[in-house]
């Protein structure tokens, strides 16, 4: 069975070896990814209740594993911050969306 993918259209395309990169494709994580990297976000208690906190190291590791187009290193070194946030949101979405 094929893994689900999400395509993120970049707000700020960048140049790659084969031309302009205008989208990033991420695939859903596997159970192996999850058990190796952990949850991308964690609930923590605050004075006002509970807050969801990003695990930046896990999110980066997921991005390195889950970006399938273009090369993950190329994407991570050239995406704008806004595009990186959109990729992060897509990755985290795999953990919160109903199957």
Quick overview of this protein structure:
This protein has 99 residues and is an alpha+beta fold.
Key features?
99 residues; alpha+beta; three-stranded antiparallel sheet; globular
What summary fits the major beta sheet? 3 strands, antiparallel
Distance between the termini: 14 Å
Helix content: 40-55%
The count of domains is 1
- Trace the largest sheet across and list its strands: 1-2-5
Q: How big a fraction of the residues is strand?
A: 35-45%
- Rg is 14 Å
Structural class: alpha+beta
**Low-pLDDT runs:** none
Could you state the order of secondary-structure elements as H and E? Answer: EEHEEHEHH
Multimeric organization: single chain
Overall geometric form: globular
Total helical segments: 4
Record field, number of beta strands: 5
Kindly state the mean pLDDT as a whole number?
Answer: 93
Can you describe this structure?
- The protein has 99 residues and is α+β, with helices and mostly antiparallel strands.
- The chain has one domain.
- The protein contains 4 helices and 5 strands.
- The strands form 2 sheets. It has a 3-stranded antiparallel beta sheet.
- The two termini are 14 Å apart.
SSE inventory with pairings:
Elements: E1 5-16, E2 19-27, H1 31-37, E3 41-46, E4 49-54, H2 56-66, E5 67-69, H3 72-78, H4 81-96
Antiparallel strand pairs: 1-2, 2-5, 3-4
């Amino acid at each position: 069975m094929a893994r689900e993918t999400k395509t993120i259209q970049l707000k700020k395309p960048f140049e790659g070896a084969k031309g302009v990169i205008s989208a990033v494709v991420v695939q859903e994580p596997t159970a192996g990814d999850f058990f190796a990297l952990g949850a991308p976000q964690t609930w923590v208690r605050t004075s006002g209740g509970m807050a969801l906190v990003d695990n930046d190291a896990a999110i980066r590791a997921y991005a390195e594993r889950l970006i399938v187009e273009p090369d993950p290193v190329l994407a991570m070194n050239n995406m704008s911050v806004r595009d990186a946030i959109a990729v992060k949101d897509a990755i985290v979405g795999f953990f919160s969306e109903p199957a």
